[in-house]
Amino acid sequence: MSSLSLPVAPPPPPAESRHIAIQFEDVSIGFEGKPVLDGVSFQLLRGESKILLGVAGSGKSTILKLVLGLIRPDGGRIVVLGHEVTEMTEVELFDVRRDIGMVFQESALFDSLTVRENVSYRLSEEHDISSEEIERRVREALRFVELEQTLDMMPAELSGGMRRRVAIARAIVSQPEILLYDSPTGGLDPVTSTTILELIVKQRDVYRSSSLMVTHRLQDALLLATHWFDTKTNQMQHLEPGANINIRTTFMLLRDGKVIFDGPANDLVHSEDPYIREYLS
User: Fold this and answer.
1) What pLDDT, on the 0 to 100 scale, is given for residue 17?
2) Is residue 67 part of a domain?
3) CA angle 94, 97, 103 (to 5 degrees)
4) Could you tell me the CA-to-CA distances from 267 to 240, 250, 262 in Å, in that order?
5) Which domain holds residue 225?
6) 3-class secondary structure for the chain?
7) How many domains, the chain?
8) Does some domain include residue 149?
9) 154 assigned to some structural domain
10) How far apart are CA 173 and CA 40, in angstroms?
11) Gap between the Cα atoms of 105 and 184, Å rounded
């Protein structure tokens, strides 16, 4: 997909930070006197996918909201694409959010709009993009998720899996630098879940987007760590041992608002930490 030309863009980040997509430095936040994140620090490199794991209430979805600037931390710094979002105004945040795509657990499509209108909604806000270019990009995004035939359908006419795929098309239509997935397979059957995961792998390996993915399903996380997308066959393939393919996928496990693991899948599954072993069992 061609890159989107924006009418207004934030100033370029410092050169030394351009290889980092997201950086949290000692971030803490609580609600109603209860700590949710307590001194969380991590980096997401450009082109890297990081899977956020942890029990319910461990702060995974809160991290996504903090990246978007929808909430502000009680302490610490958050830098997104070189810009410190913790110090930005709402208007400044709007410019940063142009480079972030979000896939919600429940798809969050507009019920009164067609698939075409849902996917094009964000592009329609950009007044310098012609209707012809918007149509081209919408069709391209829907073709990516193999739903171009649904252009004129309403969300109510789609299955749950199809709505989730349209949500992915909407998130990628402007080719954002960062993608955020909040439990993208939640509530879906195993077959449909695999279809969604294949699209996430395809986006990761074909376009090398930077992404954070929250999931409650360990099997989904491990699938992302053991598969890659083959553009020759247009299918997801199992990553064979010793294969010279860098899928750039890491894991971060939260417990009681703290990061207790941040690294590759191999280190996670071979950890001797009692809590991690119990979580994985």
Assistant:
1) 56
2) yes
3) 135
4) 17, 10, 9
5) 15-99+210-280
6) CCCCCCCCCCCCCCHHHCCEEEEEEEEEEEECCEEEEEEEEEEEECCCEEEEECCCCCCHHHHHHHHHCCCCCCEEEEEECCEEHHHCCHHHHHHHHCCEEEECCCCCCCCCCCHHHHHHHHHHCCCCCCHHHHHHHHHHHHHHCCCHHHCCCCHHHCCHHHHHHHHHHHHHCCCCCEEEEECCCCCCCHHHHHHHHHHHHHHHHHHCCEEEEECCCHHHHHHHHHEEEECCCCEEEECCCCCCCCCCEEEEEEECCEEEEEECHHHHHCCCCHHHHHHHC
7) 1
8) no
9) no
10) 31
11) 5
Say if residue 67 is exposed, middle or buried (CB neighbours under 10 Å; 0-12, 13-18, 19+). Answer: buried
Tens of pLDDT, residue by residue over 35-66, are 999 999 999 999 999 999 999 989 999 999 99
Tell me if 138 is assigned to some domain.
no
Across the chain, mean pLDDT equals 89
Question: Cα-Cα-Cα-Cα dihedral of 38, 187, 208, 60, to 10°?
Answer: 0
> Within 10 A of 7 (CB to CB), how many other CB atoms are there?
10
Q: For 238-274, what is each residue's pLDDT tens digit?
A: 988 878 888 999 999 999 999 999 999 999 999 999 9
**Which residues are registered as beta bridge partners of 84?**
79
Evaluate whether 146 touches 178 at the Cβ level (below 8 Å).
Answer: no
Q: Which residues contact 32 (CB under 8 A, 6 or more apart)?
A: none
Instruction: Please give the backbone phi and psi of residue 268, each rounded to the nearest 5 degrees, phi first.
Output: -65, -50
Summarised one tens digit per residue, pLDDT across range 122-141 is 888 776 788 899 999 999 99
CATH number of domain containing 214: 3.40.50.300
Amino acid at 173: V
